[in-house]
Amino acid sequence: MTEPFLFDGPADAAATIVLAHGAGAPMDSASLTAIATGLAARGLRVARFEFPYMRERRLSGARRGPDRQPVLVQSWRDAIDALGGGPRLVIGGRSLGGRIASYVADDFQARGLVCLGYPFHPPGDPGRLRTAHLAGLKTPTLIVQGTRDPFGGTDEVAGYQLSPSIRVVWMEDGDHSFKPRKASGRTEAENLAAAVAAVADFVAGLP
Predict the structure, then answer these.
(1) Residues 1, 78: contact at Cβ < 8 Å?
(2) Does residue 2 carry a pLDDT above 60?
(3) Confidence (pTM)
(4) For residue 1, is it within any domain?
């Protein structure tokens, strides 16, 4: 079983959002914490968890790459089962966490899917797309993406074949973590707040 979870928000909330971390930062990273606590402040329940490689890194301090995809997928399956099943949950997360959630969302009939910075392709390698399964995705999905994300920016994403169940919301001048350049006149805090608002509005509109 995937545990422990890190919870924010009221236990009796109308919706629970389960978030996994990105490839390089843990579940209590500053940006993911800002999003989780922001959603909790809007009355939503947020549960965060870590993949095995990140839990091991936390215990040993040894840095290694992410687990193989079957292990990551099984971690999501365990997390969903532990929290009562897909129909009760909105699942997703940062980058890697959201991408792996997108592979299991339909299987578990998740209430919704939220991807915070989807890695459409590796940086500098736009030909290696991770979009094939997104064309037929049935789960209502929100992708929050920085306009200059090296994993997929506005011009690139506009040309992808994405399911009509997917909505993309853009963070102005944001990179993969939604951080804008100083010259843009925006701040990271503003983009994180905008991301929280987009996710909260998406969840509120789910059946």
Answers:
(1) yes
(2) no
(3) 0.96
(4) no
Read off the CATH number of the domain in which 89 is found: 3.40.50.1820
> For the chain, how big is the Rg over CA atoms in Å?
16
Question: Which domain covers residue 158, as residue numbers?
Answer: 6-204
Domain tally, the chain: 1
158 within some domain: yes
Alpha helix (H) residue ranges in 42-187? 52-60, 69-82, 96-104, 154-158
Residue 183 lies in a domain: yes
At 68-82, the pLDDT tens digits run 999 999 999 999 999
pLDDT single digits (tens) 111-167 = 999 999 999 999 999 999 999 999 999 999 999 999 999 999 999 999 999 999 999
Give every CB contact of residue 178 below 8 A, 6+ residues apart in sequence: 31, 116, 117, 144, 146, 171, 188, 191, 192, 195
